Amino acid sequence: MRLRDTLRHPLTQAFLLLALAYVLIVYGIRYLPPLFGAASAPVPKSIVVQFMAFALAGVLVYVSDDEERWRRFREPIHATLVDADKKILRSSLLVLIPLVVAWLAYAQAKPSVGAAAVLRSIHPAPPGQITFRGKTMQLTGLENPLRAQGSMADHLATGRRVYYQNCLPCHGDLLDGQGHFAHGFNPVPLSFTDNGTIAQLTESFVFWRIAKGGPGLPREGTPWNSAMPVWEDYLSEEEIWSVIIFLYEQTGWEPRTWEARAEGGSHE
Protein backbone atom coordinates (compact mmCIF):
# COMPACT_ATOMS: atom_id res chain seq x y z
CA MET A 1 0.00 0.00 0.00
CA ARG A 2 1.40 3.34 -1.01
CA LEU A 3 2.04 6.03 1.59
CA ARG A 4 -0.69 8.24 0.13
CA ASP A 5 -3.24 5.44 0.41
CA THR A 6 -2.08 4.71 3.96
CA LEU A 7 -2.56 8.35 4.98
CA ARG A 8 -6.01 8.42 3.41
CA HIS A 9 -7.13 5.31 5.28
CA PRO A 10 -9.67 6.17 8.05
CA LEU A 11 -7.79 4.15 10.68
CA THR A 12 -4.55 6.04 9.98
CA GLN A 13 -6.40 9.35 10.05
CA ALA A 14 -7.99 8.42 13.38
CA PHE A 15 -4.59 7.73 14.96
CA LEU A 16 -3.12 10.95 13.54
CA LEU A 17 -6.04 13.03 14.83
CA LEU A 18 -5.70 11.53 18.31
CA ALA A 19 -1.95 12.21 18.29
CA LEU A 20 -2.55 15.81 17.21
CA ALA A 21 -5.18 16.25 19.94
CA TYR A 22 -2.75 14.94 22.56
CA VAL A 23 0.00 17.33 21.49
CA LEU A 24 -2.36 20.31 21.52
CA ILE A 25 -3.82 19.41 24.92
CA VAL A 26 -0.54 18.64 26.71
CA TYR A 27 1.82 21.13 25.09
CA GLY A 28 -0.39 23.70 23.38
CA ILE A 29 -2.27 24.76 26.51
CA ARG A 30 0.99 25.05 28.46
CA TYR A 31 3.37 26.67 25.98
CA LEU A 32 1.19 28.75 23.64
CA PRO A 33 -0.15 31.30 26.22
CA PRO A 34 3.34 32.79 26.95
CA LEU A 35 3.66 33.64 23.25
CA PHE A 36 0.72 36.02 23.72
CA GLY A 37 1.89 37.44 27.06
CA ALA A 38 -0.26 35.18 29.25
CA ALA A 39 0.92 32.93 32.07
CA SER A 40 1.56 29.27 31.33
CA ALA A 41 0.13 26.57 33.54
CA PRO A 42 0.66 22.84 33.81
CA VAL A 43 -2.18 20.70 32.51
CA PRO A 44 -3.47 18.26 35.16
CA LYS A 45 -3.47 14.63 34.05
CA SER A 46 -7.16 14.36 34.85
CA ILE A 47 -7.85 17.14 32.35
CA VAL A 48 -5.69 15.40 29.72
CA VAL A 49 -7.68 12.17 30.17
CA GLN A 50 -10.99 14.04 30.00
CA PHE A 51 -10.07 16.00 26.86
CA MET A 52 -8.63 12.91 25.16
CA ALA A 53 -11.94 11.12 25.84
CA PHE A 54 -13.72 14.00 24.09
CA ALA A 55 -11.22 13.78 21.20
CA LEU A 56 -11.75 10.01 20.90
CA ALA A 57 -15.52 10.51 20.82
CA GLY A 58 -15.13 13.11 18.09
CA VAL A 59 -12.87 10.84 16.01
CA LEU A 60 -15.33 7.96 16.32
CA VAL A 61 -18.14 10.23 15.17
CA TYR A 62 -16.02 11.29 12.19
CA VAL A 63 -15.13 7.75 11.03
CA SER A 64 -18.67 6.42 11.52
CA ASP A 65 -20.74 9.19 9.92
CA ASP A 66 -20.14 7.69 6.47
CA GLU A 67 -20.90 4.03 5.78
CA GLU A 68 -18.01 3.49 3.39
CA ARG A 69 -15.52 5.21 5.70
CA TRP A 70 -16.76 3.17 8.65
CA ARG A 71 -16.40 -0.07 6.64
CA ARG A 72 -12.81 0.78 5.70
CA PHE A 73 -12.04 1.76 9.30
CA ARG A 74 -13.22 -1.63 10.57
CA GLU A 75 -11.56 -3.77 7.91
CA PRO A 76 -8.00 -3.96 9.38
CA ILE A 77 -9.35 -4.36 12.92
CA HIS A 78 -11.66 -7.20 11.85
CA ALA A 79 -8.89 -8.84 9.85
CA THR A 80 -6.52 -8.73 12.81
CA LEU A 81 -9.11 -10.37 15.06
CA VAL A 82 -10.34 -13.18 12.79
CA ASP A 83 -8.07 -13.87 9.81
CA ALA A 84 -6.12 -17.11 10.04
CA ASP A 85 -2.92 -15.53 8.73
CA LYS A 86 -2.99 -12.94 11.54
CA LYS A 87 -2.64 -15.47 14.36
CA ILE A 88 0.94 -14.46 15.18
CA LEU A 89 -0.06 -10.78 15.23
CA ARG A 90 -3.02 -11.53 17.52
CA SER A 91 -0.85 -13.50 19.91
CA SER A 92 1.76 -10.72 19.95
CA LEU A 93 -0.88 -8.10 20.74
CA LEU A 94 -2.33 -10.34 23.46
CA VAL A 95 1.06 -10.24 25.19
CA LEU A 96 2.16 -6.72 24.24
CA ILE A 97 -0.96 -4.76 25.27
CA PRO A 98 -1.02 -6.03 28.91
CA LEU A 99 2.74 -5.37 29.14
CA VAL A 100 2.29 -1.78 27.95
CA VAL A 101 -0.58 -1.19 30.38
CA ALA A 102 1.47 -2.68 33.23
CA TRP A 103 4.47 -0.50 32.34
CA LEU A 104 2.34 2.66 32.21
CA ALA A 105 0.81 1.82 35.59
CA TYR A 106 4.26 1.22 37.08
CA ALA A 107 5.67 4.43 35.60
CA GLN A 108 2.73 6.35 37.03
CA ALA A 109 3.04 4.87 40.51
CA LYS A 110 6.79 4.66 41.08
CA PRO A 111 8.44 7.52 43.03
CA SER A 112 11.10 9.48 41.21
CA VAL A 113 14.21 10.87 42.86
CA GLY A 114 16.73 12.94 40.96
CA ALA A 115 19.19 15.73 41.44
CA ALA A 116 17.90 19.20 40.76
CA ALA A 117 18.98 20.57 37.40
CA VAL A 118 19.62 23.98 38.99
CA LEU A 119 19.77 25.38 42.50
CA ARG A 120 16.25 25.98 43.67
CA SER A 121 14.54 27.97 46.36
CA ILE A 122 10.96 28.01 47.61
CA HIS A 123 11.30 31.72 48.34
CA PRO A 124 13.83 32.97 45.75
CA ALA A 125 15.60 36.23 46.48
CA PRO A 126 13.70 39.22 45.11
CA PRO A 127 15.40 41.69 42.79
CA GLY A 128 16.65 44.94 44.28
CA GLN A 129 14.14 46.88 42.24
CA ILE A 130 11.27 46.24 39.87
CA THR A 131 9.30 48.19 37.31
CA PHE A 132 5.60 48.42 38.08
CA ARG A 133 3.58 49.81 35.16
CA GLY A 134 6.55 51.86 34.03
CA LYS A 135 7.37 53.08 37.54
CA THR A 136 10.65 51.99 39.12
CA MET A 137 10.22 50.67 42.67
CA GLN A 138 13.14 49.99 45.03
CA LEU A 139 12.19 46.84 46.96
CA THR A 140 15.06 46.93 49.43
CA GLY A 141 13.81 48.68 52.54
CA LEU A 142 10.35 49.27 51.04
CA GLU A 143 7.48 49.31 53.53
CA ASN A 144 3.78 49.13 52.79
CA PRO A 145 2.88 52.80 52.23
CA LEU A 146 -0.78 52.27 53.13
CA ARG A 147 0.11 51.46 56.74
CA ALA A 148 1.10 55.10 57.22
CA GLN A 149 -1.71 56.77 55.32
CA GLY A 150 -5.48 56.71 55.05
CA SER A 151 -7.91 54.56 57.01
CA MET A 152 -6.83 51.03 57.86
CA ALA A 153 -10.49 49.96 57.79
CA ASP A 154 -10.77 51.24 54.22
CA HIS A 155 -7.57 49.45 53.21
CA LEU A 156 -8.86 46.20 54.72
CA ALA A 157 -12.18 46.58 52.91
CA THR A 158 -10.39 47.13 49.61
CA GLY A 159 -8.06 44.21 50.24
CA ARG A 160 -10.97 41.93 51.12
CA ARG A 161 -12.76 42.91 47.91
CA VAL A 162 -9.64 42.32 45.80
CA TYR A 163 -9.02 38.94 47.43
CA TYR A 164 -12.53 37.60 47.00
CA GLN A 165 -12.80 38.87 43.43
CA ASN A 166 -9.43 37.55 42.25
CA CYS A 167 -7.64 35.21 44.68
CA LEU A 168 -10.43 33.09 46.17
CA PRO A 169 -10.69 30.43 43.41
CA CYS A 170 -7.10 29.28 44.00
CA HIS A 171 -6.14 30.29 47.56
CA GLY A 172 -9.53 29.50 49.09
CA ASP A 173 -12.07 31.11 51.36
CA LEU A 174 -9.92 30.24 54.39
CA LEU A 175 -6.67 31.44 52.74
CA ASP A 176 -5.40 27.88 53.09
CA GLY A 177 -4.61 27.19 49.43
CA GLN A 178 -7.68 24.96 49.06
CA GLY A 179 -9.67 26.98 46.53
CA HIS A 180 -12.00 25.47 43.94
CA PHE A 181 -9.24 25.38 41.30
CA ALA A 182 -6.40 24.36 43.65
CA HIS A 183 -6.50 20.66 42.72
CA GLY A 184 -5.69 21.55 39.13
CA PHE A 185 -2.24 22.99 39.89
CA ASN A 186 1.10 21.40 40.71
CA PRO A 187 2.45 22.81 42.95
CA VAL A 188 -0.78 23.80 44.64
CA PRO A 189 -1.43 27.45 45.58
CA LEU A 190 0.22 28.69 48.75
CA SER A 191 -1.55 28.45 52.08
CA PHE A 192 -1.21 31.85 53.72
CA THR A 193 -2.13 30.31 57.07
CA ASP A 194 1.08 28.24 56.99
CA ASN A 195 3.83 29.80 59.08
CA GLY A 196 6.31 29.04 56.31
CA THR A 197 4.82 31.44 53.77
CA ILE A 198 3.93 35.11 54.30
CA ALA A 199 4.89 34.93 57.99
CA GLN A 200 8.51 34.68 56.82
CA LEU A 201 8.35 37.50 54.27
CA THR A 202 8.45 41.26 54.08
CA GLU A 203 5.52 43.01 52.50
CA SER A 204 7.74 44.22 49.66
CA PHE A 205 8.53 40.57 48.82
CA VAL A 206 4.82 39.73 48.76
CA PHE A 207 4.17 42.80 46.57
CA TRP A 208 6.79 41.59 44.08
CA ARG A 209 5.36 38.08 43.93
CA ILE A 210 1.79 39.30 43.44
CA ALA A 211 2.71 41.94 40.90
CA LYS A 212 4.92 39.74 38.75
CA GLY A 213 3.20 36.37 39.32
CA GLY A 214 4.58 33.07 38.09
CA PRO A 215 6.26 34.54 34.97
CA GLY A 216 8.26 36.89 37.23
CA LEU A 217 10.00 34.10 39.13
CA PRO A 218 13.78 33.88 38.65
CA ARG A 219 15.32 30.64 37.41
CA GLU A 220 16.10 29.36 40.89
CA GLY A 221 12.35 29.47 41.59
CA THR A 222 11.86 26.35 39.47
CA PRO A 223 10.47 23.76 39.89
CA TRP A 224 8.45 25.72 42.45
CA ASN A 225 6.92 27.61 39.54
CA SER A 226 3.61 29.30 40.11
CA ALA A 227 0.58 29.48 37.84
CA MET A 228 -0.33 32.86 39.36
CA PRO A 229 -0.93 35.51 36.69
CA VAL A 230 0.89 38.83 36.46
CA TRP A 231 -1.48 40.82 38.66
CA GLU A 232 0.02 44.21 37.80
CA ASP A 233 -1.85 43.79 34.50
CA TYR A 234 -5.15 43.82 36.39
CA LEU A 235 -4.63 45.47 39.79
CA SER A 236 -3.42 48.90 40.77
CA GLU A 237 -0.51 49.45 43.15
CA GLU A 238 -2.91 50.47 45.93
CA GLU A 239 -5.05 47.36 45.41
CA ILE A 240 -2.02 45.09 45.75
CA TRP A 241 -0.83 46.82 48.93
CA SER A 242 -4.41 46.61 50.27
CA VAL A 243 -4.76 42.89 49.64
CA ILE A 244 -1.40 42.35 51.36
CA ILE A 245 -2.77 44.13 54.45
CA PHE A 246 -5.84 41.89 54.25
CA LEU A 247 -3.71 38.72 54.06
CA TYR A 248 -1.74 39.55 57.18
CA GLU A 249 -4.77 40.80 59.09
CA GLN A 250 -6.86 37.75 58.20
CA THR A 251 -4.17 35.20 59.05
CA GLY A 252 -2.90 36.97 62.15
CA TRP A 253 0.72 36.93 60.98
CA GLU A 254 3.06 39.90 61.33
CA PRO A 255 5.14 40.71 58.24
CA ARG A 256 8.90 40.67 58.57
CA THR A 257 10.31 44.16 58.88
CA TRP A 258 13.42 45.93 57.64
CA GLU A 259 15.70 46.63 60.60
CA ALA A 260 17.88 49.73 60.44
CA ARG A 261 21.62 49.18 60.43
CA ALA A 262 23.62 50.84 63.16
CA GLU A 263 25.60 52.86 60.61
CA GLY A 264 22.90 53.46 58.03
CA GLY A 265 21.45 51.29 55.34
CA SER A 266 19.07 48.46 56.04
CA HIS A 267 18.80 44.71 55.96
CA GLU A 268 16.06 42.18 56.26
Provide structural commentary.
By secondary structure, the protein is mainly α. The chain folds into two domains: 3-109, no CATH class; 129-267, Cytochrome Bc1 Complex, Chain D, domain 2, CATH 1.10.760. It contains eight helices and four strands; from the N terminus they run H-H-H-H-H-E-E-H-H-H-E-E. The protein has helices at 3-8, 10-31, 45-64, 67-82, 87-109, 152-171, 203-212, 237-251; strands at 129-132, 135-138, 259-260, 266-267. A two-stranded antiparallel sheet has the order 1-2. Strands 3-4 form a two-stranded antiparallel ribbon. Helix 2 packs antiparallel against helix 3 and helix 6 (152-171) crosses helix 8. The N and C termini lie far apart (72 Å).
> What's the number of domains?
2
pLDDT average, as an integer?
Answer: 85
Label the CATH architecture of the largest domain.
Orthogonal Bundle
Report the order of strands and helices: HHHHHEEHHHEE
As a whole number of angstroms, the C-alpha radius of gyration is 27 Å
Mind telling me the CATH class of the largest domain? Mainly Alpha
The CATH homologous superfamily of the largest domain is named Cytochrome c-like domain
Low-confidence segments, given as residue ranges, are: 260-268
Shape: elongated
**Helix tally?**
8
The biggest beta sheet reads: 2 strands, antiparallel
Name the helicity range.
40-55%
In which order are the strands of the major sheet placed?
A: 1-2
State the separation between the terminal residues, measured CA to CA.
Answer: 72 Å
Strand-residue proportion: under 5%
CATH topology of the largest domain: Cytochrome Bc1 Complex, Chain D, domain 2
SS elements, strand count: 4
Which structural class do you get from the secondary structure elements?
A: mainly alpha
